[in-house]
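queue> pop job 88
queue> type: inverse folding (structure -> sequence)
queue> payload:
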């Protein structure tokens, strides 16, 4: 009796990555179906015929052409309402609170993967697949059960693991990432080899639901902004800002002070509506050696042993920085002057100060190499011995030897 093919629903964006993801899965013997997702678009923009960059008419046409070429069906889902609620409203609300959010993270967890997995499972699909450059590894444990780990992709320049730290074991059980072992150049060459028209298609780096190049135009349209004073740290007034949500820590672009500068954002005082700046991009005030991470998700679903020594990334493409974590059971509410009990919060202390630690951004935790032999270990978050050399921890009894490419988890910077 022939084994029934496993069914995969591939999120097709009309780009080269999702196209090759579908192609590779088809070659691996899966029963592949394409799905194109429609998201919210900003109809209030002054730009004519405005479209969401992720789901434009051109993107849908390209997705159709690819699906016709590799002979798979293509359907569409309208996710506009949930995208508006979970991504756009989240983005605006966080800026109102004086934070700097990354909208791609809730989008992946709740919409592009979260809701899509639920819909796919109801329709009888075994998996959902995307064109993310990341690895999802399935490890067998006792009682015929499986455990999933998430790793950086082979292409470090395109690695998208930072955006996926919020995924759960249940979600990872039903998602495939076919491009984890490929580089972008290899993907483009494959697309050209098999004559896919999208092989040289350019990709957008901007936020998909913002029509303009600058997200400040979007914020000006939806937030009530109040101008105020720009001061140096010694309280010298040097200019006027256009509304504090338009500025983020360490920023230079947009701090427009005629005749002097350049200046970098050092601090935002929301009570007094003052923007504080410094002239030196490496001014010590722009650096911090600790942060509080809240709403932390551990990929394993299990809290690791503490203190946890690992690497942290505080923004996309930030160089991993060595640090250690300890639980932070109480968080201080500065406005109310009281401490509140909090689960999923941790204090992160860096070995070296990091520039522009920004509240609202995500901090993502990765494993470390063994101090004794330099080998990346693969034996999990609770190991106290290096799998390669057997050496006990040299940096504390609870040191954790993990593969440096493994995502342990992440959270939001308070």
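queue> result:
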């Amino acid at each position: 009796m022939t084994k029934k093919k496993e069914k995969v629903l591939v999120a097709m964006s009309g780009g080269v990555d999702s196209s090759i993801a579908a192609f590779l899965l088809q070659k691996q013997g899966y029963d592949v179906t394409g799905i194109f997702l429609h998201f919210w678009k900003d109809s209030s923009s002054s730009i004519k015929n405005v479209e969401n960059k992720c789901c434009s008419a051109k993107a849908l046409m390209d997705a159709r052409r690819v699906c016709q070429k590799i002979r798979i069906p293509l359907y569409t889902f309208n996710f506009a309402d949930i995208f508006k609620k979970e991504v756009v409203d989240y983005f605006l609300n966080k800026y109102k609170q004086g934070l700097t959010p990354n909208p791609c993270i809730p989008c992946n967890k709740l919409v592009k993967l979260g809701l899509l997995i639920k819909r796919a499972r109801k329709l009888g699909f075994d998996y959902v697949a995307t064109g993310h450059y990341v690895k999802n590894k399935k490890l067998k444990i006792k009682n015929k059960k499986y455990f999933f780990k998430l790793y950086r992709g082979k292409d470090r320049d395109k690695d998208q693991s930072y955006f996926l730290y919020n995924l759960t074991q249940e979600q990872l059980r039903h998602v495939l990432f076919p491009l984890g072992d490929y580089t972008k150049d290899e993907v483009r060459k494959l697309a050209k080899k098999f004559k896919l028209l999208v092989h040289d298609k350019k990709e957008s780096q901007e936020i998909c639901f913002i029509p303009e190049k600058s997200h400040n135009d979007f914020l000006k349209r939806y937030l009530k902004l109040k101008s105020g004073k720009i001061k140096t740290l010694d309280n010298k007034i040097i200019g006027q800002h256009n509304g504090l949500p338009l500025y983020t820590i360490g920023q230079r672009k947009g701090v427009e002070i005629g005749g002097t500068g350049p200046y970098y954002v050092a601090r935002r005082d929301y009570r007094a509506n003052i923007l504080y700046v410094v002239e030196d991009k490496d001014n010590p005030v722009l650096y911090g050696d600790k942060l509080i991470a809240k709403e932390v998700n551990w990929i394993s679903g299990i809290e690791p042993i503490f203190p946890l020594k690992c690497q942290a990334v505080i923004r996309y493409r930030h160089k991993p920085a060595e640090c250690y974590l300890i639980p932070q059971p109480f968080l201080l509410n500065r406005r109310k002057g009281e401490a509140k009990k909090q689960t999923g919060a941790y204090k992160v202390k860096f070995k070296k100060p990091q520039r522009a630690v920004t509240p609202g951004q995500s901090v993502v935790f990765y494993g470390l190499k063994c101090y004794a032999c330099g080998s990346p270990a693969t034996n999990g978050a609770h190991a106290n011995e290096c799998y390669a050399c057997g050496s006990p921890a040299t940096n504390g009894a609870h040191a954790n030897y993990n593969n440096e490419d493994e995502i342990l988890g992440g959270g939001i910077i308070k």
